[in-house]
Amino acid sequence: MTRALILLSVLCPLLRAGDSAEKGRFRVKYVTADTVYLDAGRNAGLSTGMKLGVRRGPENSEPVADLEVISVAATSAACSISAAHQEIQPGDVAYLSPEDKQAAESLQSSGDAGRFAQVVTFTEGDPLEEEARESVPRPPLPEVNRATGRITFEYSSLRDQAGSGLNSYEAGVAFRADITRIGGSYWNLRGYWRGRLDSRQGGIQQQTLNDLLNRTYHLTLYYDNPQSAWRAGFGRFYLPWASSLDTIDGGYLGRQVSKGVTAGIFAGTTPDPTSWNYSPGRQIFGSFLNYETGSFETVRYSGTGGLAFTRLNGRPERRFAFFENNLTFRRVFSIYHNVEVDDFRSPLQSSVSSGATAPISGVGVSRSFLTVRMQPASFLSLDLSHNYFRDQPTFDPRLIGTGLLDKLLFQGFSGGFQLDLPLRLSLYSSLGKSDRTGDAKSSWNQLYGLAVRRLWWVGARADVRYSRFTSAFGRGNYRSLMLTRQVGEALRFNVQAGDQTYASPFSRQDRARYINGSIDWLLAGRYILGGGMTVYRGQIQKYEQTYFNLGYRF
Question: Which domains does the chain have, with CATH numbers?
Answer without folding.
Answer: 2-121 (2.40.10.340)
